[in-house]
Amino acid sequence: MRAMRLVGAVALVVCWWSVFAVCSAQGGIPGSRWTQPVAELAEQIADTLGPGQAQLTVRNLSTIPGNEVPAIRKLLEQDLKARGVLAGGAESANMIRVTLSESERERLWVAEIAEGKATRVVMVRLDAGQSAAAVATSQRVVLRKEKVPGLADRAGTITEQNPILAAAEINGHFVVMFADRLSVFSSASGEWTETNRFAIGAKMARDPHGVLIPASDGGSFASYAPGTQCTGSYSLPLNGTTQDSGWTVRCHASDDPWPVYQSADASAAPALKAFYNTARDYFTGVVTPSIGVDLPPFYAAGMIPRAAGGAALLLAGVDGKVQIVENGAMRAVAGTRDWGSDFAVVRSGCGAGTQVIASSSGEALSDSLRAFAISAIEAVPESSPLAMTGTVTALWTAQDGKSAMAVVRNSTGEYEVDRVSALCN
Amino acid sequence: MFRRFVISCVLISAALGSSARTRPHYGGTLHVEIAGDPWERPSGVARRLVYDGLTQLDANGALRPALAISWEQDNNFHRWQFRVRSGVRFHDGSSLNSAAVAASLNVSCSANCPWDTVKAVGPLVIFTNNSPMPSLPSLLASDQFLIALTGAAEGKTPMGAIGTGPFQVTGFNNGVLTLAANENCWAGRPFADAVEIRVHRAIRDQWLDVGLGRADIVDVPAEQLRQAQQQRLSVRSSPPVMLLALQLSDTGTLADVKVRAAIAAAVDRSALFNVIFQKQGEVTASLLPQRMSGYSFLFATERDLKKAQELRGGLGNGTITLSALGDGTMQLAAQRIALNLHEAGFNVQMATAGVQHTDLVLRRLPIAGVDPAAVMERILWDAGMPQAVTEQTPGALYKREQAILEDRRIIPLLELPLGYASGVRVRDLHLRADGTPDLPDASLEDAR
After folding, report:
1. What is the rounded (10 degree) CA torsion for B164, B170, B173, B176?
2. In chain A, which residues have their Cβ closer than 8 Å to the Cβ of B16?
3. Does residue A216 sit in helix, strand or coil?
């Protein structure tokens, strides 16, 4: 009998603690993020109303989940009570009507305090929440993206929406090509900050593009923008004797052909150049040296190594067709219906060893990237689509040949540079 | 067996021949049809094609540089200087400079301007005013202050509409305004080679034309958005970017604020919303929309006929004239308001077309932007009630808005969207922050 009583007592305590824990989980955790704004609102209400009793109503016009509202109300009642305001019943002469509201920029909690015929209003502002990014997994290859922090146009509080056309890491710096300039970014505490600017005087375009090719010496580069070609190099500044950044950039007007792809082999120089139509923002199809096939106008090109040796040229045409040039013949590639206009060839070492990372066709609000293997004349998906945070405006092979660099314009018009790696699954 | 083979062949050829969606193509002619005038304010489609402002709003409503590349204020917002973008040319080939900008602004705003003086100093355009102008950069993005070649800078008068925008006027024949791409546009050449705007076209004919492929972009009035969707048109509509408001005179019969308050209480917003505008947009009693302020719900929208009759009392016995600016729907809305006021005991007379000054004016005011203070200042400016709005916190803005509305010279009624339908050839058609279609960034599917 005593044992049964003991078991009963223990069960009661366990049960009581369980109920307490559940209550804490339901009321305490969601409410904790609202503690500060609730306290602010309660203080303003108490300052306005003074000690006394008032009828309290709380309504939610915001995106705060409905199941969090009772916790907010409970917190508010507690804070009001601590300041001498008791949330009473319908018989109270005074009334506090709290609305959990929000605008596009922030949450706004509003209390209408009615005393007789007079109504006064107090408000508390809250920051809106943030969201997180994701990694796509499945199949043979996993695409992982990593934002290069700080690579954006930060000319001041009033910024031109200056598109990023290309970027490359050279000698410990990031060289970024904007529509109107080349900028050098240096690393400081994990973030890249702009340290030098060089105007390039390129012709403005509605759909601007450019190419930035690091040299194999690791300390210089060549850049191509509509109507302009630049070369840049870095040499160590004399320590302590000069303010010189060490960067030299020289630009000149040029209609010369552009290198059309960055080789997946970092040490190899781009082998193919193509003439760029600056009035229409695409490659004309005229390439040098000639490859013996008349190419159509195209947006992007890349060289695919073949298992049997040799290589094939992959083209994303202006007409939306993806074609492959091999053995003097040009053929359409099946399975590319969802491709956009940009792709990059990466040497992942997974599967056949080389994949093509292609942008999606842009029907959705945000683009995605996906890895494909090109077998014969078919593109076979090798990864799940990797969702990007906006529209992919440029995509090219990174210097290591194993990853791609993507420029993404988000819904607010800001640009970011992402490194997209293809990892074996 | 043969059937399977044929189906397989069809599928394979479809897979091989199908084209991916690419970057936008250049070329082609965009055929646009509109019910109104292409130059009318505030949403005339041709204005933003031909002209640019010193500043502009991006698609999200944020302020961006346009013909000015930077700006800064001093003397506590009493003085602003804007640096003019170099290398920009008007459509006639002449250079844009600060003198041309100042001349244009002096022509477009000769009286009741947001500034006392505007002048050119080197590459700068300098604005000065006795009162602070905290929202001047935002105001300069409005279509009233677009920069046109006036000729005043060079002592001659140019012919036609000449700006720096992505398209230039090439002609107007048989109700069609034709524009050609500005190859040297500072913001880049537009994708389309040309735009043809057929004006004053009946909505029914526009929809017929877009269905038959004779038009690429046509109007869809707010009240017909649902109908257009039912007819399976490809419709794009903006968030509510137009404030439907009743403006009241403060003289004559309406000199007493009680009479104006009675009119505010008598108007039945829900009838306008449900019947006239077919439940499109939002009912409102505030200048700033809820999405912008977060406090719009504090202003009561319900009709209170009893209160209206009490407030009116023996006042407001004279005849009140009412006019509506805009299309037939606006006239219908004005007639509905006249009926509401009649029920409250007012004697209201609808003004005939062309009458300039009436006691009540029903009009639409743009509400584009993201900075609430700047948007409120712009609404007041467009309503002819210019005043600087310097308040930044929601609480301060609410008090300011409350004070403005308590004077009952403007009664917000509805927030309305703008809508358009597009044909199958059009791609990448987006609406600007002001709800108008961004034609320079639109392209045609069949262009190469």
Report:
1. -50
2. 332, 334
3. coil
- Regarding whether A411 and A313 lie in a shared domain, the answer is yes
Query: In this complex, do A335 and B15 lie within 8 Å of one another by their Cβ atoms?
Result: yes
Decide if A294 touches B, using CB distance below 8 A: no
How many domains would you assign to chain B? 3
The arrangement of strands across the sheet holding A247-253 comes to A211-214, A220-225, A228-234, A247-253
The string of pLDDT tens digits covering residues A348-394 is 888 778 899 998 865 566 789 999 998 888 888 888 889 898 889 99
Q: A286-335: per-residue pLDDT in tens? A: 998 888 889 999 999 998 887 777 888 999 998 888 999 988 889 899 88
Task: Say what angle helices B394-406 and B372-382 make with each other, to 10 degrees.
Answer: 20
Show the tokens assigned to B7.
Answer: 């189906």
- Considering the domain architecture, whether residues B106 and B231 belong to the same structural domain is answered as no
Residue of A nearest to B21 (CA): A361
Question: Strand, helix or coil at B5?
Answer: helix
Q: Are B185 and B19 in contact (CB under 8 A)?
A: no
Tokens of A237: 């500044």
Q: Which residue of B has its CA nearest to A158?
A: B70
- Residues A100 and A64: beta-carbon distance below 8 Å: yes
Question: CB of A370 within 8 A of CB of A344?
Answer: no
Q: Is B195 exposed, middle or buried (0-12, 13-18, 19+ CB in 10 A)?
A: buried
Compute the distance between CA of residue B307 and CA of residue B298 in angstroms, rounded to an integer: 18
Does A278 lie at the interface with B, CB-CB under 8 angstroms?
Answer: no
Residue with tokens 């109270």: A92
Q: Is B337 helix (H, G, I), strand (E, B) or coil?
A: helix
Q: Give the span between the Cα atoms of B152 and A170, in whole angstroms.
A: 51
**Nearest chain B Cα distance for residue A348, angstroms:** 25
**Same-domain status, A152 and A91:** no
Structural domain including B215 reads 29-41+165-238+433-444
**Whether B295 and A413 lie within 8 Å, measured CB to CB:** no
- Tokens representing B317? 């016995």
The Cα B369–Cα B240 span in angstroms is: 12
Q: List the alpha helices (DSSP H) in B344-416.
A: 372-382, 394-406
